[in-house]
């Protein structure tokens, strides 16, 4: 059983922070050998561990990566899900503060930090990608902080679904790659509360659940109201 990480301070939702951030460029095979190397990871395989030397910065080529921290009482806090095109593993210090694992089978490109430093002034596009990745990480971290502290369980699920739809779906149907246990650990809820919240949204006609991981946003406007 997963214990809620934070007690809701208020049921009022807060608006998401947003910035006009340019999209990351698509992955190009031709550019890989000069600065990065590609690796494949199986489901639940560790990419790096908490406390490992932060020698690389990572970009998701396919699949989903979760970054998390194990708290002193044994609870796990997932701080982010990184999707295709996302950059992760950027650290100010020499060690990783979180661990990173593959949610399912995934491919990642590894950029050695020393090579990135030497690329400044030589590869403007790569520098822009890294800067954009850091900006996106900052915005998502700020949004996640507000979500944990100021939203009810149903509001958290609504915000999460809208975010995933924006990042992965071309329409109102999405297939969630992560388990409900992962969602619970990301939102600071118990898995039972996550399941009840999904059921509540389904009964209200706001979402449809053909299966546990396939979600249809039947009433996006109602979800948006829960997110504002």
Mean pLDDT: 83
The figure for the number of domains is 2
Largest sheet: 4 strands, antiparallel
- End-to-end gap: 30 Å
What's the overall geometry? globular
Going by CATH, what is the homologous superfamily of the largest domain? Jelly Rolls
- Helix content percent band: 25-40%
Rg is: 18 Å
Strand content: 15-25%
Helix-strand string: HEEEEEEEEHHHEHHEH
Overall CATH architecture of the largest domain:
Sandwich
Q: From the helix content, strand content and strand pairing, which structural class follows?
A: alpha+beta
Domain HTH crp-type: 151-221
InterPro entries: cNMP-bd_dom, cNMP-bd_dom_sf, Env_Response_Regulators, HTH_CRP, RmlC-like_jellyroll, WH-like_DNA-bd_sf, WH_DNA-bd_sf
Organism: Microvirga mediterraneensis
Protein name: Helix-turn-helix domain-containing protein
Describe this structure in words.
The chain is an alpha+beta fold. It folds into two domains: 117 residues, Jelly Rolls; 75 residues, Winged helix-like DNA-binding domain superfamily/Winged helix DNA-binding domain (Arc Repressor Mutant, subunit A). 36% of the residues lie in helices and 21% in strands. It is built from seven helices and ten strands. It has a four-stranded antiparallel sheet with strand order 1-8-3-6. A hairpin with a 5-residue loop joins β4 and β5. α4 packs across α7. The longest helix has 27 residues. Keywords: DNA-binding, Nitrogen fixation, Transcription, Transcription regulation. It holds the Pfam family HTH_Crp_2. One of its GO terms (molecular function) is DNA binding. This is Helix-turn-helix domain-containing protein.
């Amino acid at each position: 059983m997963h214990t809620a990480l934070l007690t809701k301070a208020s049921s009022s939702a807060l608006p998401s922070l947003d910035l006009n951030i340019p999209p990351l460029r698509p992955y190009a095979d031709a550019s890989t050998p000069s600065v990065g190397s590609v690796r494949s990871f199986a489901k639940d395989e560790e990419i790096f561990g908490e406390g490992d030397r932060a020698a690389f910065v990572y970009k998701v080529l396919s699949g989903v990566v979760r970054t998390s921290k194990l708290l002193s009482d044994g609870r796990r806090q997932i701080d982010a899900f990184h999707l295709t095109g996302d950059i992760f593993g950027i650290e100010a210090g020499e060690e990783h503060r979180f661990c990173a694992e593959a949610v399912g089978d995934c491919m990642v490109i590894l950029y050695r930090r020393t090579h990135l430093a030497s690329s400044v002034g030589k590869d403007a596009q790569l520098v822009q990608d890294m800067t954009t990745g850091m900006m996106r990480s900052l915005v998502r971290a700020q949004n996640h902080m507000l979500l944990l502290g100021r939203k009810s369980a149903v509001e958290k699920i609504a915000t999460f679904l809208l975010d995933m739809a924006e990042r992965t779906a071309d329409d109102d149907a999405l297939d969630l790659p992560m388990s409900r246990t992962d969602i619970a650990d990301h939102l600071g809820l118990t898995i039972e509360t996550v399941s009840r919240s999904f059921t509540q949204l389904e009964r209200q006609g706001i979402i449809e659940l053909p299966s546990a991981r396939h979600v249809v946003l039947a009433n996006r406007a109602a979800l948006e109201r829960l997110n504002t």
